[in-house]
From TrEMBL:
InterPro entries: Metal_Hydrolase. This is Uncharacterized protein. It comes from the Eukaryota.
Length: 62
């Protein structure tokens, strides 16, 4: 598991080079939740790397 602080395009590139083909973004826990901008950046980066992105999406405000 990669924390919010540990998630960067450089680390995603390294994980991709190590053979990781997908990543899960979890929006259901405060400690794992990313901002909308962070989610977009991760999705753009994983797309560019040819990785699959799974989003566990929940809206706690509803």
């Amino acid at each position: 598991m990669v924390s919010q602080e540990g998630l960067s395009s450089v680390k995603l590139d390294m994980l991709s080079q190590e053979g990781l083909s997908s990543i899960k973004l979890d929006m259901s826990y405060d400690k794992l939740r990313l901002s909308d901008d962070e989610l977009l950046q991760v999705m753009l980066t994983t797309h560019a790397l040819g990785m699959t992105t799974l989003v566990h999406a929940e809206n706690h405000d509803v």
